[in-house]
Write a structure and sequence with these properties.
alpha/beta; 24% strand; globular; Cholesterol Oxidase, domain 2; 25 strands; seven-stranded antiparallel beta sheet; FAD/NAD-bd_sf; seven-stranded mixed beta sheet; 12 helices; FAD/NAD(P)-binding domain; 507 residues; single chain; GMC_OxRdtase_N
Length: 507
Protein backbone atom coordinates (compact mmCIF):
# COMPACT_ATOMS: atom_id res chain seq x y z
CA UNK A 1 0.00 0.00 0.00
CA UNK A 2 1.30 3.44 -0.93
CA UNK A 3 0.98 6.54 1.20
CA UNK A 4 -2.43 8.13 1.09
CA UNK A 5 -2.91 10.92 -1.47
CA UNK A 6 -5.46 13.70 -1.53
CA UNK A 7 -6.75 12.93 -5.04
CA UNK A 8 -6.16 9.94 -7.30
CA UNK A 9 -7.16 10.40 -10.94
CA UNK A 10 -7.59 7.29 -13.07
CA UNK A 11 -6.77 8.01 -16.71
CA UNK A 12 -4.30 10.57 -18.05
CA UNK A 13 -6.37 11.52 -21.09
CA UNK A 14 -7.74 14.80 -22.35
CA UNK A 15 -9.72 15.48 -19.16
CA UNK A 16 -7.66 13.55 -16.62
CA UNK A 17 -4.29 15.09 -17.49
CA UNK A 18 -5.88 18.54 -17.48
CA UNK A 19 -7.44 17.96 -14.07
CA UNK A 20 -4.21 16.61 -12.56
CA UNK A 21 -2.18 19.57 -13.78
CA UNK A 22 -4.70 22.11 -12.51
CA UNK A 23 -5.21 20.51 -9.09
CA UNK A 24 -1.45 20.23 -8.53
CA UNK A 25 -1.12 24.02 -8.91
CA UNK A 26 -2.08 23.94 -5.21
CA UNK A 27 1.23 22.84 -3.68
CA UNK A 28 -0.51 21.57 -0.55
CA UNK A 29 -2.50 19.00 -2.50
CA UNK A 30 -1.00 15.58 -3.24
CA UNK A 31 -2.23 14.41 -6.64
CA UNK A 32 -1.63 10.98 -8.17
CA UNK A 33 -2.38 10.41 -11.87
CA UNK A 34 -2.61 6.81 -13.08
CA UNK A 35 -2.32 5.75 -16.73
CA UNK A 36 -2.48 2.29 -18.28
CA UNK A 37 -0.19 3.36 -21.12
CA UNK A 38 3.50 4.10 -20.71
CA UNK A 39 4.60 7.06 -18.60
CA UNK A 40 7.00 8.19 -21.33
CA UNK A 41 5.87 10.25 -24.29
CA UNK A 42 6.45 9.11 -27.88
CA UNK A 43 7.59 12.36 -29.52
CA UNK A 44 7.76 10.80 -32.99
CA UNK A 45 4.06 9.94 -32.91
CA UNK A 46 3.13 13.56 -32.12
CA UNK A 47 4.61 14.93 -35.34
CA UNK A 48 1.83 16.23 -37.56
CA UNK A 49 3.45 14.47 -40.49
CA UNK A 50 2.55 11.20 -38.74
CA UNK A 51 -1.01 12.20 -37.84
CA UNK A 52 -3.56 10.53 -40.11
CA UNK A 53 -6.89 8.79 -39.72
CA UNK A 54 -5.03 5.48 -39.62
CA UNK A 55 -5.10 3.44 -36.45
CA UNK A 56 -2.27 4.08 -34.04
CA UNK A 57 -0.03 1.77 -32.10
CA UNK A 58 -0.77 3.35 -28.72
CA UNK A 59 -4.37 2.37 -28.17
CA UNK A 60 -6.31 -0.45 -26.51
CA UNK A 61 -7.00 -2.34 -29.73
CA UNK A 62 -10.75 -2.47 -29.16
CA UNK A 63 -13.40 -3.29 -31.72
CA UNK A 64 -17.05 -2.29 -31.69
CA UNK A 65 -20.33 -3.32 -33.22
CA UNK A 66 -21.19 -0.65 -35.77
CA UNK A 67 -24.56 -2.20 -36.54
CA UNK A 68 -26.00 -5.74 -36.28
CA UNK A 69 -23.96 -6.96 -39.26
CA UNK A 70 -20.62 -5.12 -38.94
CA UNK A 71 -17.73 -5.06 -36.49
CA UNK A 72 -15.24 -2.20 -36.83
CA UNK A 73 -11.93 -1.32 -35.16
CA UNK A 74 -12.45 1.21 -32.39
CA UNK A 75 -9.12 2.58 -31.14
CA UNK A 76 -9.02 4.38 -27.80
CA UNK A 77 -5.93 6.17 -26.53
CA UNK A 78 -3.63 4.23 -24.21
CA UNK A 79 -0.92 6.80 -23.55
CA UNK A 80 -0.31 10.01 -21.67
CA UNK A 81 -2.79 12.41 -23.21
CA UNK A 82 -5.27 9.67 -24.05
CA UNK A 83 -7.40 10.56 -27.04
CA UNK A 84 -5.64 13.90 -27.39
CA UNK A 85 -2.43 11.95 -28.16
CA UNK A 86 -3.92 9.77 -30.92
CA UNK A 87 -6.43 12.01 -32.68
CA UNK A 88 -6.25 14.12 -35.83
CA UNK A 89 -5.34 17.31 -34.02
CA UNK A 90 -8.57 19.16 -34.79
CA UNK A 91 -9.53 21.81 -32.24
CA UNK A 92 -13.22 22.48 -32.76
CA UNK A 93 -15.29 23.87 -29.93
CA UNK A 94 -18.78 22.68 -29.07
CA UNK A 95 -21.58 25.03 -30.03
CA UNK A 96 -23.12 27.33 -27.40
CA UNK A 97 -26.35 25.38 -27.84
CA UNK A 98 -24.56 22.17 -26.86
CA UNK A 99 -23.45 23.51 -23.51
CA UNK A 100 -26.76 25.20 -22.81
CA UNK A 101 -28.41 21.81 -23.40
CA UNK A 102 -26.15 20.31 -20.70
CA UNK A 103 -27.31 22.96 -18.25
CA UNK A 104 -30.95 22.54 -19.28
CA UNK A 105 -30.64 18.84 -18.43
CA UNK A 106 -30.45 19.77 -14.76
CA UNK A 107 -26.79 20.73 -14.54
CA UNK A 108 -26.29 24.32 -13.30
CA UNK A 109 -22.82 25.66 -14.00
CA UNK A 110 -22.39 23.73 -17.26
CA UNK A 111 -23.98 26.21 -19.69
CA UNK A 112 -22.16 28.18 -22.36
CA UNK A 113 -21.16 31.07 -20.09
CA UNK A 114 -19.34 28.77 -17.67
CA UNK A 115 -17.85 26.53 -20.32
CA UNK A 116 -16.67 29.46 -22.44
CA UNK A 117 -14.56 30.49 -19.46
CA UNK A 118 -12.96 27.02 -19.49
CA UNK A 119 -12.51 27.00 -23.25
CA UNK A 120 -10.78 30.38 -23.15
CA UNK A 121 -8.52 29.27 -20.30
CA UNK A 122 -7.25 26.18 -22.08
CA UNK A 123 -6.29 27.87 -25.34
CA UNK A 124 -3.53 29.95 -26.85
CA UNK A 125 -5.55 31.06 -29.86
CA UNK A 126 -4.06 32.66 -32.95
CA UNK A 127 -7.16 34.89 -33.18
CA UNK A 128 -5.82 36.76 -30.15
CA UNK A 129 -7.42 37.53 -26.80
CA UNK A 130 -11.04 38.65 -26.91
CA UNK A 131 -14.38 38.05 -25.26
CA UNK A 132 -14.56 34.67 -27.01
CA UNK A 133 -10.90 33.63 -27.28
CA UNK A 134 -8.02 33.20 -24.88
CA UNK A 135 -4.25 33.40 -25.18
CA UNK A 136 -1.44 31.98 -23.07
CA UNK A 137 -3.24 28.71 -22.31
CA UNK A 138 -1.68 25.24 -22.53
CA UNK A 139 -3.21 24.26 -25.89
CA UNK A 140 -2.37 26.22 -29.06
CA UNK A 141 -5.28 26.70 -31.45
CA UNK A 142 -4.01 27.57 -34.92
CA UNK A 143 -5.79 27.98 -38.25
CA UNK A 144 -4.31 27.29 -41.65
CA UNK A 145 -3.55 30.43 -43.63
CA UNK A 146 -4.75 30.80 -47.22
CA UNK A 147 -1.24 30.44 -48.60
CA UNK A 148 -0.82 27.14 -46.72
CA UNK A 149 -3.74 25.37 -48.38
CA UNK A 150 -2.76 22.57 -50.74
CA UNK A 151 -4.19 22.60 -54.26
CA UNK A 152 -6.38 19.65 -53.33
CA UNK A 153 -7.83 21.36 -50.26
CA UNK A 154 -8.24 24.64 -52.16
CA UNK A 155 -10.33 22.84 -54.77
CA UNK A 156 -12.55 21.54 -51.98
CA UNK A 157 -12.97 25.03 -50.53
CA UNK A 158 -13.85 26.53 -53.91
CA UNK A 159 -16.25 23.69 -54.65
CA UNK A 160 -18.06 24.20 -51.34
CA UNK A 161 -18.40 27.88 -52.11
CA UNK A 162 -19.73 26.97 -55.56
CA UNK A 163 -22.61 24.97 -54.04
CA UNK A 164 -23.52 27.92 -51.85
CA UNK A 165 -21.72 27.39 -48.54
CA UNK A 166 -20.65 30.54 -46.72
CA UNK A 167 -17.01 31.33 -46.01
CA UNK A 168 -16.02 31.02 -42.33
CA UNK A 169 -13.04 32.80 -40.81
CA UNK A 170 -13.39 31.20 -37.35
CA UNK A 171 -15.22 27.92 -36.79
CA UNK A 172 -14.95 28.53 -33.03
CA UNK A 173 -16.79 31.85 -32.81
CA UNK A 174 -20.01 30.05 -31.85
CA UNK A 175 -22.05 31.65 -34.63
CA UNK A 176 -20.64 30.63 -38.01
CA UNK A 177 -21.87 28.06 -40.49
CA UNK A 178 -20.02 27.18 -43.67
CA UNK A 179 -16.57 26.28 -44.98
CA UNK A 180 -13.29 27.37 -43.41
CA UNK A 181 -9.96 26.33 -42.01
CA UNK A 182 -9.96 23.67 -39.34
CA UNK A 183 -8.50 25.08 -36.12
CA UNK A 184 -5.84 22.68 -34.90
CA UNK A 185 -3.93 22.13 -31.69
CA UNK A 186 -0.49 22.25 -33.32
CA UNK A 187 2.79 24.04 -32.77
CA UNK A 188 6.01 23.75 -34.80
CA UNK A 189 4.78 20.70 -36.67
CA UNK A 190 3.68 18.89 -33.49
CA UNK A 191 0.19 17.98 -32.30
CA UNK A 192 -0.06 19.37 -28.76
CA UNK A 193 -1.83 16.83 -26.57
CA UNK A 194 -2.65 17.35 -22.90
CA UNK A 195 0.52 15.36 -22.14
CA UNK A 196 2.53 18.10 -23.85
CA UNK A 197 0.40 21.13 -22.99
CA UNK A 198 -0.51 20.33 -19.38
CA UNK A 199 1.67 17.57 -17.94
CA UNK A 200 5.08 18.57 -19.24
CA UNK A 201 5.02 22.02 -17.58
CA UNK A 202 3.81 20.40 -14.34
CA UNK A 203 6.33 17.54 -14.33
CA UNK A 204 8.65 19.10 -11.75
CA UNK A 205 5.97 19.65 -9.11
CA UNK A 206 6.76 17.49 -6.06
CA UNK A 207 3.06 17.12 -5.24
CA UNK A 208 2.17 15.58 -8.63
CA UNK A 209 3.01 11.95 -9.35
CA UNK A 210 2.30 10.38 -12.73
CA UNK A 211 2.47 6.59 -12.95
CA UNK A 212 2.28 4.70 -16.23
CA UNK A 213 1.75 1.02 -16.92
CA UNK A 214 -0.93 0.85 -14.22
CA UNK A 215 -4.05 -1.24 -14.66
CA UNK A 216 -6.81 -0.14 -12.29
CA UNK A 217 -9.00 -3.07 -11.31
CA UNK A 218 -11.59 -1.28 -9.20
CA UNK A 219 -12.50 1.63 -7.01
CA UNK A 220 -12.49 0.46 -3.40
CA UNK A 221 -15.77 1.34 -1.67
CA UNK A 222 -16.30 1.05 2.08
CA UNK A 223 -19.56 1.95 3.79
CA UNK A 224 -20.77 3.92 0.80
CA UNK A 225 -17.56 5.89 0.30
CA UNK A 226 -14.74 5.54 -2.22
CA UNK A 227 -11.51 5.25 -0.24
CA UNK A 228 -9.03 4.45 -3.00
CA UNK A 229 -8.29 2.18 -5.95
CA UNK A 230 -6.89 -1.31 -6.35
CA UNK A 231 -4.28 -1.45 -9.10
CA UNK A 232 -2.19 -4.09 -10.86
CA UNK A 233 1.41 -3.36 -11.86
CA UNK A 234 3.52 -6.12 -13.40
CA UNK A 235 1.08 -8.68 -12.04
CA UNK A 236 1.24 -7.42 -8.44
CA UNK A 237 -1.78 -5.90 -6.73
CA UNK A 238 -1.58 -2.69 -4.74
CA UNK A 239 -4.05 -0.55 -2.82
CA UNK A 240 -3.84 3.21 -3.16
CA UNK A 241 -5.83 5.15 -0.59
CA UNK A 242 -7.12 8.62 -1.43
CA UNK A 243 -9.35 11.30 -0.03
CA UNK A 244 -11.06 11.60 -3.42
CA UNK A 245 -11.18 9.30 -6.45
CA UNK A 246 -11.79 10.71 -9.91
CA UNK A 247 -12.43 8.38 -12.84
CA UNK A 248 -11.31 9.89 -16.16
CA UNK A 249 -11.05 6.85 -18.38
CA UNK A 250 -13.30 8.10 -21.19
CA UNK A 251 -16.74 7.04 -22.33
CA UNK A 252 -15.63 3.52 -23.26
CA UNK A 253 -13.42 2.68 -20.26
CA UNK A 254 -15.15 4.55 -17.42
CA UNK A 255 -18.27 2.32 -17.36
CA UNK A 256 -16.28 -0.94 -17.06
CA UNK A 257 -14.28 0.44 -14.12
CA UNK A 258 -17.45 1.58 -12.38
CA UNK A 259 -19.09 -1.78 -13.07
CA UNK A 260 -16.15 -3.76 -11.69
CA UNK A 261 -16.40 -1.53 -8.62
CA UNK A 262 -20.02 -2.52 -8.00
CA UNK A 263 -21.58 0.58 -9.54
CA UNK A 264 -23.85 -0.01 -12.50
CA UNK A 265 -26.80 -2.09 -13.73
CA UNK A 266 -27.52 -4.40 -10.81
CA UNK A 267 -28.66 -7.45 -12.79
CA UNK A 268 -25.55 -7.42 -15.01
CA UNK A 269 -23.21 -7.06 -12.05
CA UNK A 270 -24.86 -9.83 -10.08
CA UNK A 271 -24.68 -12.14 -13.10
CA UNK A 272 -20.91 -11.58 -13.09
CA UNK A 273 -20.63 -12.17 -9.35
CA UNK A 274 -19.93 -8.53 -8.50
CA UNK A 275 -21.27 -7.14 -5.22
CA UNK A 276 -23.56 -4.21 -6.00
CA UNK A 277 -22.87 -0.99 -4.12
CA UNK A 278 -25.22 1.19 -6.19
CA UNK A 279 -27.64 -0.02 -8.84
CA UNK A 280 -27.26 2.61 -11.59
CA UNK A 281 -28.81 1.55 -14.89
CA UNK A 282 -27.26 4.55 -16.65
CA UNK A 283 -23.69 3.25 -16.36
CA UNK A 284 -22.78 2.19 -19.89
CA UNK A 285 -26.07 3.37 -21.39
CA UNK A 286 -26.71 6.42 -23.60
CA UNK A 287 -23.57 5.87 -25.73
CA UNK A 288 -23.40 8.53 -28.42
CA UNK A 289 -21.01 8.51 -31.37
CA UNK A 290 -20.72 10.63 -34.50
CA UNK A 291 -21.52 8.37 -37.48
CA UNK A 292 -19.62 9.26 -40.64
CA UNK A 293 -20.10 8.28 -44.26
CA UNK A 294 -17.52 8.44 -47.04
CA UNK A 295 -17.71 9.17 -50.73
CA UNK A 296 -14.58 7.43 -52.05
CA UNK A 297 -13.13 9.09 -55.13
CA UNK A 298 -10.73 7.63 -57.69
CA UNK A 299 -8.56 10.58 -58.75
CA UNK A 300 -7.25 11.56 -62.11
CA UNK A 301 -3.52 11.25 -62.62
CA UNK A 302 -1.40 13.54 -60.47
CA UNK A 303 -4.20 14.77 -58.20
CA UNK A 304 -3.16 13.09 -54.94
CA UNK A 305 0.18 13.71 -53.23
CA UNK A 306 0.57 11.49 -50.17
CA UNK A 307 3.32 13.78 -48.85
CA UNK A 308 0.79 16.59 -48.35
CA UNK A 309 -1.24 17.24 -45.23
CA UNK A 310 -4.37 15.11 -45.28
CA UNK A 311 -7.00 17.61 -44.11
CA UNK A 312 -7.12 21.38 -43.63
CA UNK A 313 -10.69 22.55 -44.22
CA UNK A 314 -14.11 21.65 -42.90
CA UNK A 315 -17.69 22.77 -43.26
CA UNK A 316 -20.13 22.97 -40.37
CA UNK A 317 -23.56 22.89 -41.96
CA UNK A 318 -27.20 22.14 -41.18
CA UNK A 319 -28.76 19.10 -42.81
CA UNK A 320 -31.75 19.68 -45.09
CA UNK A 321 -34.93 19.37 -43.06
CA UNK A 322 -33.12 19.61 -39.72
CA UNK A 323 -33.94 22.12 -36.98
CA UNK A 324 -30.56 21.51 -35.27
CA UNK A 325 -27.99 24.08 -36.39
CA UNK A 326 -24.67 22.78 -37.70
CA UNK A 327 -25.59 19.14 -37.19
CA UNK A 328 -23.27 17.99 -39.99
CA UNK A 329 -19.49 18.29 -40.41
CA UNK A 330 -18.08 17.89 -43.90
CA UNK A 331 -14.44 17.45 -44.82
CA UNK A 332 -12.01 16.12 -47.38
CA UNK A 333 -9.23 13.59 -46.98
CA UNK A 334 -6.77 14.75 -49.64
CA UNK A 335 -5.30 11.28 -50.08
CA UNK A 336 -5.84 7.74 -48.86
CA UNK A 337 -3.05 5.30 -49.57
CA UNK A 338 -4.55 1.86 -50.27
CA UNK A 339 -1.25 0.05 -50.83
CA UNK A 340 -1.09 -1.21 -47.22
CA UNK A 341 -4.48 -2.89 -47.81
CA UNK A 342 -4.07 -4.75 -51.12
CA UNK A 343 -7.47 -6.40 -50.88
CA UNK A 344 -9.14 -2.97 -50.90
CA UNK A 345 -6.74 -1.63 -53.52
CA UNK A 346 -7.66 -4.48 -55.84
CA UNK A 347 -11.38 -3.80 -55.44
CA UNK A 348 -10.99 -0.07 -56.06
CA UNK A 349 -8.41 -0.44 -58.81
CA UNK A 350 -6.20 2.40 -57.59
CA UNK A 351 -3.21 2.74 -55.29
CA UNK A 352 -4.29 6.10 -53.86
CA UNK A 353 -7.74 7.64 -53.65
CA UNK A 354 -9.23 10.64 -51.88
CA UNK A 355 -12.53 11.01 -50.11
CA UNK A 356 -15.18 13.40 -48.97
CA UNK A 357 -16.61 12.54 -45.59
CA UNK A 358 -19.50 13.82 -43.55
CA UNK A 359 -20.55 13.07 -40.00
CA UNK A 360 -23.81 13.54 -38.13
CA UNK A 361 -22.86 15.66 -35.13
CA UNK A 362 -26.12 15.34 -33.21
CA UNK A 363 -27.15 11.72 -33.73
CA UNK A 364 -30.42 10.36 -32.46
CA UNK A 365 -29.21 6.76 -32.12
CA UNK A 366 -27.90 5.47 -28.81
CA UNK A 367 -25.61 2.55 -28.10
CA UNK A 368 -24.18 0.98 -24.97
CA UNK A 369 -21.03 -0.27 -23.27
CA UNK A 370 -20.95 -3.33 -21.01
CA UNK A 371 -18.49 -5.71 -19.44
CA UNK A 372 -18.59 -9.42 -20.16
CA UNK A 373 -15.89 -10.34 -17.65
CA UNK A 374 -14.52 -9.08 -14.35
CA UNK A 375 -10.97 -9.08 -15.74
CA UNK A 376 -9.65 -5.51 -15.83
CA UNK A 377 -7.81 -6.12 -19.11
CA UNK A 378 -10.82 -7.62 -20.89
CA UNK A 379 -12.21 -5.64 -23.81
CA UNK A 380 -15.70 -4.27 -23.16
CA UNK A 381 -18.66 -4.97 -25.38
CA UNK A 382 -19.35 -1.80 -27.38
CA UNK A 383 -22.52 -1.37 -29.43
CA UNK A 384 -22.23 1.91 -31.34
CA UNK A 385 -25.57 1.58 -33.13
CA UNK A 386 -24.14 3.80 -35.88
CA UNK A 387 -26.82 5.48 -37.99
CA UNK A 388 -29.25 3.26 -36.12
CA UNK A 389 -31.96 5.91 -36.08
CA UNK A 390 -33.82 6.70 -39.33
CA UNK A 391 -33.08 10.41 -38.93
CA UNK A 392 -29.33 9.75 -38.75
CA UNK A 393 -29.48 7.67 -41.92
CA UNK A 394 -31.61 10.33 -43.65
CA UNK A 395 -29.09 13.06 -42.86
CA UNK A 396 -26.17 10.97 -44.12
CA UNK A 397 -28.04 10.24 -47.35
CA UNK A 398 -28.59 13.98 -47.82
CA UNK A 399 -24.90 14.52 -47.09
CA UNK A 400 -23.89 12.00 -49.76
CA UNK A 401 -25.96 13.82 -52.34
CA UNK A 402 -24.34 17.11 -51.33
CA UNK A 403 -20.88 15.55 -51.57
CA UNK A 404 -21.62 14.31 -55.09
CA UNK A 405 -22.80 17.81 -56.03
CA UNK A 406 -19.52 19.21 -54.71
CA UNK A 407 -17.50 16.86 -56.93
CA UNK A 408 -19.45 18.04 -59.98
CA UNK A 409 -18.53 21.71 -59.59
CA UNK A 410 -15.92 23.35 -61.80
CA UNK A 411 -13.23 23.50 -59.09
CA UNK A 412 -13.33 19.72 -58.51
CA UNK A 413 -14.71 17.82 -61.47
CA UNK A 414 -11.41 17.59 -63.35
CA UNK A 415 -9.88 15.88 -60.30
CA UNK A 416 -12.46 13.10 -60.26
CA UNK A 417 -12.09 9.98 -62.41
CA UNK A 418 -14.97 8.20 -60.71
CA UNK A 419 -16.40 6.91 -57.45
CA UNK A 420 -15.37 3.75 -55.68
CA UNK A 421 -17.39 1.20 -53.70
CA UNK A 422 -20.73 2.74 -54.68
CA UNK A 423 -22.76 1.66 -57.70
CA UNK A 424 -24.18 4.26 -60.06
CA UNK A 425 -27.63 2.77 -59.45
CA UNK A 426 -27.37 3.62 -55.73
CA UNK A 427 -28.00 7.28 -56.53
CA UNK A 428 -31.43 6.45 -57.95
CA UNK A 429 -33.14 6.18 -54.55
CA UNK A 430 -32.68 7.22 -50.96
CA UNK A 431 -33.29 3.61 -49.93
CA UNK A 432 -30.28 2.46 -51.96
CA UNK A 433 -28.12 5.23 -50.53
CA UNK A 434 -29.36 4.30 -47.07
CA UNK A 435 -28.19 0.74 -47.63
CA UNK A 436 -24.80 2.11 -48.70
CA UNK A 437 -24.67 4.21 -45.52
CA UNK A 438 -25.29 1.13 -43.42
CA UNK A 439 -22.51 -0.73 -45.24
CA UNK A 440 -19.81 1.96 -44.87
CA UNK A 441 -20.76 4.13 -41.89
CA UNK A 442 -17.77 4.58 -39.63
CA UNK A 443 -17.28 6.01 -36.14
CA UNK A 444 -15.40 9.26 -35.73
CA UNK A 445 -14.06 8.04 -32.37
CA UNK A 446 -15.93 10.59 -30.26
CA UNK A 447 -17.78 8.36 -27.76
CA UNK A 448 -19.78 10.25 -25.16
CA UNK A 449 -22.57 9.97 -22.63
CA UNK A 450 -22.11 6.61 -20.85
CA UNK A 451 -22.13 8.09 -17.32
CA UNK A 452 -24.63 10.85 -17.97
CA UNK A 453 -24.71 13.93 -15.77
CA UNK A 454 -27.98 14.99 -14.21
CA UNK A 455 -30.00 14.98 -10.99
CA UNK A 456 -30.34 11.67 -9.17
CA UNK A 457 -34.10 12.00 -9.63
CA UNK A 458 -33.65 11.83 -13.41
CA UNK A 459 -33.71 8.31 -14.82
CA UNK A 460 -30.47 7.12 -16.39
CA UNK A 461 -28.12 9.65 -14.81
CA UNK A 462 -24.89 8.63 -13.06
CA UNK A 463 -23.28 11.82 -11.72
CA UNK A 464 -24.61 15.14 -10.46
CA UNK A 465 -23.52 18.58 -11.67
CA UNK A 466 -20.56 18.46 -9.27
CA UNK A 467 -19.53 15.21 -11.05
CA UNK A 468 -20.25 13.17 -7.90
CA UNK A 469 -21.41 9.61 -8.56
CA UNK A 470 -24.94 9.11 -7.24
CA UNK A 471 -24.93 7.11 -4.03
CA UNK A 472 -21.15 6.99 -3.47
CA UNK A 473 -19.27 9.64 -1.50
CA UNK A 474 -15.76 10.62 -2.53
CA UNK A 475 -16.11 9.43 -6.14
CA UNK A 476 -16.41 11.59 -9.23
CA UNK A 477 -16.25 11.15 -12.99
CA UNK A 478 -14.56 13.72 -15.21
CA UNK A 479 -14.53 12.86 -18.90
CA UNK A 480 -16.91 12.83 -21.86
CA UNK A 481 -18.92 9.98 -20.39
CA UNK A 482 -20.76 12.66 -18.39
CA UNK A 483 -22.18 14.28 -21.57
CA UNK A 484 -25.98 14.54 -21.48
CA UNK A 485 -25.81 15.21 -25.23
CA UNK A 486 -22.87 14.89 -27.60
CA UNK A 487 -20.98 17.99 -28.71
CA UNK A 488 -21.48 19.15 -32.29
CA UNK A 489 -17.73 19.14 -32.87
CA UNK A 490 -14.70 16.93 -32.77
CA UNK A 491 -14.65 16.35 -29.05
CA UNK A 492 -11.07 16.95 -27.87
CA UNK A 493 -11.57 20.56 -26.73
CA UNK A 494 -14.83 19.64 -25.01
CA UNK A 495 -13.03 16.91 -23.05
CA UNK A 496 -10.25 19.29 -22.02
CA UNK A 497 -12.84 21.85 -20.97
CA UNK A 498 -14.51 19.18 -18.82
CA UNK A 499 -11.15 18.73 -17.10
CA UNK A 500 -10.89 22.48 -16.56
CA UNK A 501 -14.41 22.65 -15.16
CA UNK A 502 -13.74 19.65 -12.91
CA UNK A 503 -10.70 21.46 -11.51
CA UNK A 504 -12.93 24.39 -10.57
CA UNK A 505 -15.37 22.06 -8.83
CA UNK A 506 -12.65 20.24 -6.89
CA UNK A 507 -10.75 23.40 -5.94
Amino acid sequence: MTDRVDVVIVGAGAAGATLAARLSEDASRRVLLLEAGPARKDAHADLLSNVTFALTQRDWGFSAQANPTRIVPFPQGKALGGGSAVNGGLALRPLPEDMDAWEAAGNPGWGWTDMLRCLRRLEDDDCGASDIHGTGGPIPVVRWRDEEFTAQQRSFYDACRAVGLDAVADHNDGRSSGIGSFPMNRRDGVRVSTAIGYLEPAASRPNLTVRGGVLVDRVVVRDGRAVGVEIIVDGARELIEAGEVVVSCGAIQTPPLLMRSGIGPGALLRDLGIDVHVDLAGVGANLMEHPGAFLFIVPNEGVCDIAEVQFQLGARITAPGSDQRNDLLLGMMSHWDLRPTPELRDVVGADVIFALTCGVLLPQARGRVAITSTAPDAAPFVDLNLAGHPEDERRLVAALRLMRDITRTAPMRDRVKGFALIDDAAWDSDASLGAYVQSVSAPWYHPSGTARMGPASMEGTVVDHHLRVHGIAGLRVADLSISPTIARATTNLTAIAVGERAAELLA
